[in-house]
Amino acid sequence: KAKEDGRDTYRFYDEKINKRNQRRHMIVTDLRIALRERQMQVVYQPIVQVDNHQIIGAEALLRWHHPQFRMIGPSEFVPVAESAGLINQLGIWVIEQVCILLKRLQSGAIPFLANDQYFRIAVNLSPVQFRQDVLFETIENILLEHGVPPTRFRFEVTESIFMDELNRASNVIAKLRKIGCGVSIDDFGTGYSSLSYLSKLPVDTLKIDRSFVNELSSYYSSLHEQAQHPASGLSEPDPRQAQAIALAILSLAKNLGMHVVAEGVEHLEQLRFLKEHGCDSVQGYLFGKPMPERDFIEFISRKK
Ligand code: C2E
Ligand code: MG
Ligand code: MG
Ligand code: MG
Predict the structure, then answer these.
(1) Where does ligand 1 bind, in terms of residues with CB under 6 Å?
(2) What are 205-259's pLDDT values in tens digits?
(3) In terms of CB atoms within 10 Å, which of 9, 16, 112, 249 comes out highest?
(4) Distance 17 CA to ligand 3 centre (A)
(5) Dihedrals φ, ψ of 44, to 5°?
(6) pTM of this prediction?
(7) Which residues form the EAL domain (predicted)?
(8) How many Cα atoms are found within 13 Å in the side-chain-facing hemisphere of 296?
(9) Quick check: 283 and 260 in contact, CB under 8 A?
């Protein structure tokens, strides 16, 4: 009996792995034509200053409208693009799209941008892109070609680049900072690297990961629930842990002279907690979901 159970489990996972491989294979094949066929889109999620709710920029996020499967999210196709050698091309395309948006904003569609000196668009860079020798030069050239000032850009990197390619990565980051780009560490607190790299790297912003922000407000909701069902609070994740981590990141950033952006802010309670403890800016459904370029331009002109 036990043997049969084992065989069933085996068959079950075998099928699962098979299905996954098939989908992966399909994604690799279709990714190669996705750019050419204009199935990719860059959407923009506003980033808002905590103290006055002004829009200080946005994060550029990739979307893939697959002809058969409709939307495929970047959490699924970016890792595939990385392993299939397609992420460099994709990354370049995103930066170009952002240049086009910025030029549109600068050329009078939104006249305020000229005086809005802090407005930046954040672009995610994959650790795989850092394995290229020419990453910095590639980025610099795109900005030069489009005539967009580097001070309008911020690049988001994850902690994993510091395990992978510490020297090369910090070199590229230093050069990006030197020409005026911002650089932030994304999903901060979820990686496994040591904190010592932080003092060696010229990054200017830490982004508190959505998972911590998400659990901040269950403090309030679980207090509420506990009042109604005294025994039910136990299975909830303890929000004090997420709060402790958020506070540690905020104080670390302050002491290193860095800005903090909290991502995934959905509720007022989360915003209140972050504001109370000195978080500079936030990004999340509370202020705006990622939106197509046209909607984003409308969004910022309405707010101004
Ligand atoms: P990320 O860079 O950490 O981006 C933040 C993610 O959180 C986005 O997911 C965004 O839509 C989501 N988010 C923001 N606010 C909220 C909220 O209030 N609630 C919830 N539930 N979610 C929120 P998205 O767009 O699916 O992207 C997932 C990841 O894919 C990104 O995480 C990033 O690592 C990667 N990615 C996206 N675009 C690119 C790109 O152009 N290049 C590279 N290399 N990676 C990208
Ligand atoms: Mg990001
Ligand atoms: Mg993030
Ligand atoms: Mg993330």
Answers:
(1) 45, 61-62, 73-75, 78, 91, 94, 124, 126, 156, 186-187, 210, 263-266, 283-285, 290
(2) 999 999 999 999 764 444 444 444 445 544 567 788 899 999 999 999 999 999 9
(3) 249
(4) 28
(5) -125, 125
(6) 0.91
(7) 24-304
(8) 24
(9) no
